Amino acid sequence: MRPTIISLLPVPLLLVAAARAEALTPVAAFGDNPGALAMYEHVPADLPAGRPLVVVLHGCTQTAAAMETAGWSALADELGFAVVYPEQSTANNPARCFNWAGEYGDPTNLVRGQGENRSILSMIDHALAAHGGDPSRVYITGFSAGGAFAAVMLATWPDRLAAGAILAGVPYRCATTLPDALSCQALDQHPELQRAPSDWAALVTAASGGHVGPWPRVAIWHGTTDGTVDPVAADELVEQWTAVHGLTAAPTPGTVGEVTVARWGTTIERWTVPGMGHAVPLGAGDPAGGCAGVGAYFEDRGVCSTRRIAAFFGLTPGSGDGDGDGTGDGDGDGDGTGDGDGTGDGDGDGTGGCAAAAPTSPLVLLGLLTLLARRRRAARRG
Fold it and tell me: What are the pLDDT digits (tens) for 307-316?
């Protein structure tokens, strides 16, 4: 159960999210659904066959519609790809968190082909069949608990996902119990949960069903002042996935305004956003192409993470997922050329904006969620 990636959405924003839900199409029957998740999708009109698919996972207290603020649906209309939005239910988790650390001590959701990861794969298969998508170009991104579960999907289904992006998430199997989930979100205070890169990588390879490669490429995003998931989690994610890929060389550094990026070729990216809390970074003035929105867990930081991630996936003009150097020309257009991801090292302004606060104490909500979990278990026994 996901205990603490939390900040309750204010009521007006919930109403906005509910209104946005009309823009997403619910899919009632999509195949095997042992995780009891809901499926929503956005498919551009007249989308041709052979186009990519992006899966977008929301955070705790959010819904599928809330993640439209990140701009994935609008970008799908612009660039031509389908988007699947899985949605958690309060029956599975009282705070609508994807169960990245298992559920009530049961790690089923972390095992390939079971629980919530099986449900999301069913959504992928349904969308590919219904819209004639390209199975070799399936990508996943998620924020907070969704970012942590994106890591679960990348570890358990590396043969089905070409790349992924983890925003304010944690490494795969950082925790499998409720107490450890809380500690995993504060890794700076719990060095006993930090691992050697080879040990992190072993957890992924053991989860993959015998997969030997190629492995998904991974982009990791985190704010330096995240008080919900400590930024050390991003360090551990980098260690996990560079070790999976066998990368030992130092990364190539870059900047976009005040935001720093470290790149291991086109395989791994680590974006560090100074002064940002627990949020998805947006930026109307991003030289690579802007995005803007208002909502809890979204901050204007001068860089559009959605478009930058789309470039990393190879979805934007001039980008690609091949073996190029992916460094771009550094002039701020962010598109680059050739076979790399071409994200560039633009000159975004890096200014802050509509920061979404997290007013509710994590410990208070953790106690509430623990109480609800106990009541659920008691109801099941009854």
Answer: 999 999 999 9
Measured CA distances, 306 to 35, 245, 310, 345, 364 (Å):
27, 24, 6, 16, 32
Single-letter code of the amino acid located at 241: W
Residues 110, 209: Cα–Cα separation, whole Å: 12
What is the C-alpha separation between 155 and 236, in angstroms, rounded? 15
Residue 20 has pLDDT above 50, yes or no: no
Domain boundaries, the chain: 11-381
* Structure-token pair, residue 299: 């901050």
Q: Which residues of 40-77 are buried (b: 16+ CB within 10 A; e: fewer)?
A: bbbbbeebeeebbbbbbbbbbbbbbbbbbbbbbbebbe
Residues 187 and 193: beta-carbon distance below 8 Å: yes
Nearest 10 degrees: Cα torsion 187, 192, 196, 202 = -90
The residues that are catalytic are 144
Tell me: cis bond preceding 214? Omega within 30 of 0 counts. yes
Q: What does the mean pLDDT of the chain come to?
A: 83
Please list the residues that pair with 55 across neighbouring strands.
84, 140
Topology classification of domain 11-381: Rossmann fold (3.40.50)
Confidence (pLDDT) at 369: 47
Q: Which of 282, 248, 269, 273 is nearest to 321 (CA)?
A: 269
* pLDDT, tens only, 242-278: 999 999 999 999 999 999 999 999 999 999 999 999 9
